[in-house]
Design a protein that fits this description.
Blueprint: E1 9-14, E2 18-23, E3 28-32, H1 37-41, H2 44-48, E4 51-53, E5 58-61, E6 66-69, H3 70-74
Antiparallel strand pairs: 1-2, 2-3, 4-5, 5-6
């Protein structure tokens, strides 16, 4: 029996209202930026300054102190800071 592999991010794109993540398995996830207030209120420059962490298991924005796990995106889980 084959073991499920964790979903990993390859690329990230952010518009004024959407966070889009391309996954290594070919899927693309898009969620409302309102789910992540730190990203929503960040400047375009701060939003562009991201890096993959954990070999693609998460995304980190150092200027905004924001970390988003791919598993949370797949589960449709917004930030605890969103209202």
């Amino acid at each position: 029996m084959s073991k499920l592999q964790p979903a990993k991010a390859l690329d990230v794109n952010i518009t004024d209202d959407t966070l889009t993540v391309d996954l290594a398995d070919g899927r693309t996830l898009s969620v409302p930026l309102a789910w992540y207030p730190r990203l929503l209120h960040g400047t375009p420059e701060e939003r562009r300054n991201w890096r993959l962490i954990g070999d693609g298991l998460g995304i980190h924005w150092p200027d905004l102190d924001e970390d988003i796990g791919i598993d949370g995106l797949l589960l449709g889980r917004p930030s605890g800071e969103s209202q």
